[in-house]
Amino acid sequence: MGCDGGTIPKRHELVKGPKKVEKVDKNAELVAQWNYCTLSQEILRRPIVACELGRLYNKDAVIEFLLDKSNDKALGQAASHIKSIKNVTELKLSDNPAWNGDKGNTKGDKYDDLQRARFICPVVGLEMNGRHRFCFLRCCGCVFSERALKEIKAEVCHTCGVPFQEDDVVVLNGNKEDVEVLKKRMEDRRLKMKLEKKSKKPQAVESASKPDVAEDYPGPSRVKGLKYEEIHFNSKEKKLNSTQKSTGTNGSSSGKVSKSSGTTKRSIADSEESEAYKSIFTTHSSAKRSKEESSSWVTHTSYCF
């Protein structure tokens, strides 16, 4: 069974022990977190966005994920909390002037400094390579180092001047404790938004069901009542007029004036109006002329000549 020819086996060659846990290189892990998209595993390129848990994404990858969720499940779990494009914030990053990218090592014969980063803190100047803690503001999207926020305490953004609160500060690529805190904030924020939407719906329904009615204007019942009274009164007047006409015609044919009608013609001469007003009518004395004063009217036609 072997071991002939003077070979002496050792213990580790004959006995199989437990497998050693493979340790992940910290430098490689930092490079993957800060230089590659969490969803598509591609190099980060502008526009770069961050979720409420502090993970970095390419905006194009997030839009593709929201449109088509039939992608790889392992990658989809990393962005399962992103329900819409409103759940991510576009970052305003400051470029590092000392970073040359891949242009300096095109042949592969130069040393790549992994500590060199594409972006820096605009306040302190620290490079965003994972060695230092960075955070961004949800209200404006500006990115700073945590040291800058601690040293320069202010309630206003250092670059754009937008006011912010403690809940608006999100740590980028934080540890497990940071992720748990951010997750609780995210859940509380979304519950608050749902409750506000539910409270707004009944108010909108009540305002639509109650139209604005002015107090000075009468209601519909009053208007209807007035219209009915006016119509009823008009119909009574018409009936009286018709009866008076019928009685007047009967009295004139018989030569007797009916006293039951009760309608008498009122002359203008007996009224209390002024003389100027009375002179307008033909019944006034000034309008009456004698036969001598009245001239005979002759119509002129072509047949008279």
UniProtKB/TrEMBL annotation:
GO terms for biological process: DNA replication termination. It comes from the Eukaryota. Residues 242-266 have a biased composition (Low complexity). Residues 193-221, 237-305 are annotated as: Disordered. Signal peptide: none annotated. One of its GO terms (cellular component) is nucleus. Replication termination factor which is a component of the elongating replisome. Required for ATR pathway signaling upon DNA damage and has a positive activity during DNA replication. Might function to facilitate fork pausing at replication fork barriers like the rDNA. May be globally required to stimulate ATR signaling after the fork stalls or encounters a lesion. Interacts with nascent DNA. Interacts with DDI2; probably also interacts with DDI1. Belongs to the rtf2 family. This is Replication termination factor 2. It comes from Phascolarctos cinereus (Koala).
